[in-house]
Every structure is written in structure tokens, then in C-alpha cells.
Amino acid sequence: MTMLSFSQMLAFIFGIVLTIPVYELLRRWLTPILTRVSRKKHADYQKLLKDASRSMSKIENLAHLFSLVVHFLTFRVGIRQVAIFTRRKDAEGFWLANQRGYEKNFLEYQMDDNHPLVQWLHEKKQILDVQLVADQKLTPSKQLDMRASKIRTMIETMKDFDAVCAIPSFFGSELKNILFLGRKKSEQRYTRDDWELFYNLAQEAAVAIENANLFDETKQKKNELKIINDQLEYSKSKLIKALQETERANKQLQDAQAQLIHEQKMATLGRLAASVGHEVNNPLTILSMNVSRAILKFRKDPTLKVADIMDVFQKMEQNISRIKAVVNTLTGLLKKSEKGKFEPLSLKLVLEETLPLVQFQTYLENLTGTEVAFEIPQSIPLVRGDLERLQEVFLNLFINAYHAMVGKRNRQITVKAERASDEEGFVAVHFSDNGMGMTEEIQKKIFNYAYTTKPPGKGSGMGLYMCKYIIELHGGTIRVNSTLGVGTTFILTLPIHAEPVAKHLLQKQD
């Protein structure tokens, strides 16, 4: 080592002696100045934070709020690059909500909750300095370590955004947002006051972002509710219009059905004309002959007493009764009813009153000799129905059965009634004949409108169609079982008439 000369030693000592007083003077002069600068800088930071908080609290739109935070950090604070990640509402992880200062965009950049950087911020709850992460030297033995892999991922993510630090933003205990900050435009290093400002700003932003998020959701819900209400109003108007159209169509259908029933009756009247002529003319002829006999006897013997010709009057009365029965039958058949009168009815009575109509219908077709058997137990309850329309149903079934048995020697119709086994509150009627039967294909079409297997002029295809309509109008059903060459059975169900329960019985039960 080179030894100092005596003169050099004196100069060194003299310099130290002079420096101490000068340093003391400089320290005394600079300390107040530095203190004022530090206080001013702190005050400026506090003002920035207060201004930012005030501005954020006034913004209710989430996108505008993100833009404000980025603008504040880049223009007011002077940071080159800023990126904000926020937690996804509908899934786990974070998505890039706003950014500024990058040559390329990272609009699709996402981080899930398992990302090492997210986990570190959530656990440590402090600012992550990239330099502190990079300073953790990775030795070759540590490169296979899980921790080393996580550190490398964190560094790469920070480099993607040219970030100097990552700042967590918490709402309560939940990590809601992450701010990536690049270098200052002044190229100065971040100070502890900077970190404190940014951390406080991030927490203030979390509250503002949550409020804006709630406002956005409320606004979205209001918009959705408005759309739903508009759609409901539109649907309501469409529904009202559809109901009105349906009501009109239903009225037209009811009118058409009523007209069909009336036309069916008028067609029946046409077929009845010839048979009624015979049924009325025969008793009228006999009645006329009896009247002539009574007049002739009175002319021969003016003293003749009524008792002497009582037998003639009795025969006249019998024929008048026959004519009256025919007229009553026709009057009942020709009644036009749109709604019908539903009342308790005896099935046996309905069938028995239908047979005379059948005889009129088949008067000229020489279909006599058909055996009709009613198997209706006394225990069968009354059904609820319209007498006139049910007679129309059974009249069609009788006539179809008669026609199906043409050419057979032993013709037989059997009508059975029982409580429906598969439908409580209904009576099942089995209407069977031993006619020619039907194929399966015909059975599928037998109730279709205007479908008939009869030759032209013999059938209109309306009979069974109207039967189905009338039975369904009563709330019942009708179906067919048939075997070709053996016969056909129609199965009808009709609702049982429910007797109203007396009030005093209900009170006793209570």
C-alpha cells in the first residue's frame, strides 16, 4: 500500500475538518426544504386520491368508471400503461375490462382463480412488485419446483402488460379487481407514497365498481323488465285478438253444428215422409169409414142413441190416438235446439222412445223381423243428457245396424248398459248387431266427416260424425269394435247424473 506523505495527510485532515461544518450548515438548510417538499407531495397525493374518490362515486356506469380509473392513472398520475382486470359475474376468474398505453390489445386476455398471480394477491393482500418477484433467483435445482413454475408464470404475465406492479382491489374479503401499472412517464421509480396512493385508490375503486356494477345490473333488469312488459302487452293484445277470433270461430262452429243437426233432422224428415203418409193415412181411412158408418146408421134411425154406436166411437178414438202418436213423434223430432236441455234421463226410456222413430225410418225398406233386446239392469243410474240429441244418436245406430244386417235371416240388435269399469261416474252402453262387420281400415274412418260406405243416395256420411259430436258434447266417448262377417259393437260412455247433496246432510257431516 502506498504511504501518504505528511503534506497529503495534513490536507486530508484539513478537508475533513472543513467538511463537517459545511455539511451541518447544508443539513440545517435542506431539511426544512425537503420536509416541505415531502409534505406537499403527500398533500398532492391526498388531493389526487380525494378527487379520484369523488369522481368515482358520481359515476354509475361500469364501463365509464373503468375508463375514468385508467384516465386518472395515465394522465393525472402519469403512468405509461394501465390495465384493469375485474371478476367475471357469470364465471370464475378475471377478464380484461379496460386498458391504455399498449401497442396491441388484450381484449381476450383472461386469468382464472388458479392463476399464481391471482392466488398470491388474494393470499398476501398487498401490492406485487415485479422486481421483487424477479429478484428471487431460480437455481437449476429449483426449476422443477412447483414454486419456481408459479414465479415464472407471474413474471411472464407481468411482462405481457409491461407491468411494474400488480395492485389487488378488495370488496370485503373478496378479490374483485386487479390493476396492472407500467412505468412512469417521468421514468422515476415508484415510492412508498405511490404504493400507498395506488392501494387506497384500488380499494376506493372496488366500492365504486361494485356500486356501478349493481347499478348496471339494476338498469339491465329494468330494461329486461321493460322488454318483458312490452312483450306481455304485445302478447296480451295478440291473445285478446286470438280469443276474439276463437270466440267468433267457436260461434260459427256452434252455428254450423246446430245447422248440421237441423239439416240432419230435415233429411230424416224427407225419409220419413213416405212412411208417415202410410202411418197417418191408414188410421185416417179407418176413421173416415167409421164416421161414414155412424152417419149412415143415424140416417136410417134418427132415434139412434150413442150407446148403440159406441163400438164405432171406440174405433175412431183408437185411430185418432194412432194419428196423435205419429204427430207427437214428428213434433219431437223436428224441434230445433242449439244448446239442448241436459237433465236426468233413463237409458231404457230413451231407447224405447227411439224405436218408433226407427220404425218410421225403415217403414218402406222391409226391415221388419229384427229382434231387439235391451239388457239394462234396474241398478243402472240415470244419465245426464239431452233426450232429443241422444235419440238422434241411437236412431242413427239403429238404422246403421238395420242396414248392416240386410240379407241376414236372423237379425239381432242387443243394447247392454253397465257402469264403466275404467271411468268412474260414467255409464257404458254396448250397442251390438250381428251384421256384416267392418275392416280395420273402415273403422279408422267411420267417424270422419262425410265418410260413408253406403251407395250413393243411401248415406250422407253425417250420421256417425254427428253421433261422435253429440256424445262428446255430453262429455262422453264413442268407439267401435267390429269383426268382418261377425258383427259390430259401438261402445258409448255417458256421464251419470249427480244428485245435489242436501245442505242439512252436509251440515251433519261437518
How does this model look, in words?
This protein is α+β, with helices and mostly antiparallel strands and 510 residues long. Among the domains are: 42-217, 2-Layer Sandwich (Beta-Lactamase); 339-510, 2-Layer Sandwich (Heat Shock Protein 90). Helix content is 56%, strand content 15%. The strands form three sheets. A six-stranded antiparallel sheet has the order 3-2-1-6-5-4. α1 (6-58) runs antiparallel to α2. The radius of gyration is 53 Å and the shape is rod-shaped.
Topology of this structure?
Layout (H helix, E strand, L loop, with lengths): L5 H53 L3 H15 L5 E6 L6 E7 L9 E2 L4 H9 L3 E2 H5 L11 H15 L4 E7 L2 E8 L10 H109 L9 H24 L9 E3 L1 H15 L9 E5 L7 E3 L1 H18 L7 E8 L6 E8 L6 H6 L17 H11 L3 E7 L3 E9 L7 H7 L1
Parallel strand pairs: 8-10
Antiparallel strand pairs: 1-2, 1-6, 2-3, 4-5, 5-6, 7-9, 10-11, 11-13, 12-13
